[in-house]
């Protein structure tokens, strides 16, 4: 009985527990499915919403019309997808792509009723039935940065599509039908034979003479009356063009050829940008800049009249970003100045370049990117300042321009973010009324914000005011420029990722010199006052002589010998890439200026000897050393490397004691040979210091040139041969000859004795064993360079040289190491005219490059050795007659001495000296930093003078001629 009772009790408990378990299991199952049921319900709600069965009672008018109204709004002619594909709208958990109404709801209501005449529907109900994702347009939906070319092309395509003459509205699809390969430059530029003649694909639908219309953006001029004055203004308008279908098709075909170029440039520039950005090396940086829309200053609290007139001040924002291999930085220059010209651009760029280079010591190459407005970036003024900054900072680099209308990027985002933040600050009580207050409020910003004043902009303007610039041909088409020295650029029509200087189809690099040296100066700029010293003085009148110099350049403190060598090595490489003599000459004029600006000078008074240089004696050459060298101290030939650079090595030893400056010496020889070509082809110049008789030294030197090919040597052929020789020596380690020895003498500003052994043809030795005089003397030293050979297989009678070496004394002698009875010069002659008395009568007085000091000029008019030269008289002379002569020119009613280095039919180009002391003191000096050069009319040339005498560190003009010149000016 007990057992049965226990069993019933257990069964009762078991049944109760089982029921409880089932209850808990049912609740758990229901909870797990709840979330799933909600997701199903949500999807069901969305489906119902699309079916129009969610908001209205089944069978009602709204319930029946909702699907029809949805369909109406979804049509492209009534609403369109928002320009930003990421713009979506979410309501009640439903996310939909936002669409924008093409017209107002009122007009769409009218349109709906016209299309559905059997339906009567109020405006209120129509508005209530509008889907939530179809919305009226906002201010932010306006596209205010559209590309004119794209918009006009799209208008044409839309019209043709309506007429069923093209099969697609997509511009990208149409371009593919007009080109073999949209990535090929020749195809897109209309140079491909296969696709350049492809015409519009049409479906002839009726008469092409039928009239049609299409929209076009146009720029037009209009006259308006502004405050009583009639002014012509330029407007951009959208007009309707009405013409025949045939004209529409022709217009499309013509514009498509241009649009293909436009589309290719867009893709190419962006590809180039990405390629550089993603592959930056440790020594490279990319700088992307743009002007943001001006910020309008605001106060937290303003009175009513603040809204009118000129009370609303604006600030310029120049935004950008720079990337290096390891980091990036956004920045913004803020200025009260509203100038957006090249001077402003570089004033804004200076602080950010300083920041970039200070943080990245290894950076030596900068890639600039910007859009291409002709008033800001893509113009000759910006190009010149670009080369100036690259020169000053010892950088190399390029500037790339995005295609017109497609230059948006990070700088635009920086500008937008800063202006939004500034407006928020004003709403929170901050006043922003100046660049200073703007910058102050962004001290904690991740964007580097800094102020630039008007003075910094004015300093950049001074640089441009000093130069007359030549525009770059096809400026509007170019998209890339490369730095190639001050005032010199290389440029391409499209940016290229290939190596600088490479030439291949479509990417040909062109050379351009920005500075126009022969431009006529309309307004003379006056030289600023300088402190008077023994070596450098200034005109006491504080007005001085016009100085066409570039602005003062601060030499960076960390400039090293390595950077100097790098500059000349790079310059020599660029010269070696030149294909014609004209290209070399164009480069040389700019390199000459850059060397002066960088302060790269030669020690003209350096006296090398074997003791202080440690150079080994060349024992083999000792055996052929001639005995008739005009020198009082024993000279020894020293070893010079024999790899084709022997003459530049020799010049390097003479100014530094080492061969390390060979590339610089070669560049300087090229400059000298190009710029003063006329001197080295002139008999009067070449025979100075020459004892023997030779009526045509230029012709003789041409015979000795490696470029001589047995042609008849007329004057024109000699000149062409000389130019070919200059082109040849632009290649590093190419052999040089007698013309280059002449050029080296002028580079070193000292006499060089060309030593030729008593071997081989005696006629050759008679021509080459001689004294060579420079154009300008700055050193008392006479250096000795000997012709020798590295061969051992030549007989005495057939001996020819193939090497140059230097002759040096064992130790410093403390006096001039030459014989006064030889063709060398004495201490007295250095201070005076530089020619011994026994040589004065031997010089040809009829040559343009006659040494003007070979004829003494005294106060009483006596001239030993010949008749008095007719100085200060140019009545019978042409500008060509003055080439190479020393002259006095009149500027600001004051005379200045100088040398004529160039001429045209009516004017001469004179490099002038600067005066020391008052007007009665005829003491002068040559400006060291930048030459004082200018074009002068013949009426401003007072006449020729002897070469000014070097006395100490001053040059003295003949006193009697100076007084005569002062009287001429007073008259």
From TrEMBL:
Coiled coil: none
Organism: Mytilus edulis (Blue mussel)
Biased composition (Basic and acidic residues): 520-546
Compositionally biased residues, Polar residues: 816-826
Full protein name: Vertnin
Entry-linked InterPro entries: VRTN_OTU_dom
Residue ranges, annotated region (Disordered): 520-555, 816-870
Protein origin, superkingdom: Eukaryota
Transmembrane segment boundaries: none
CDD domains in the cross-refs: OTU_VRTN
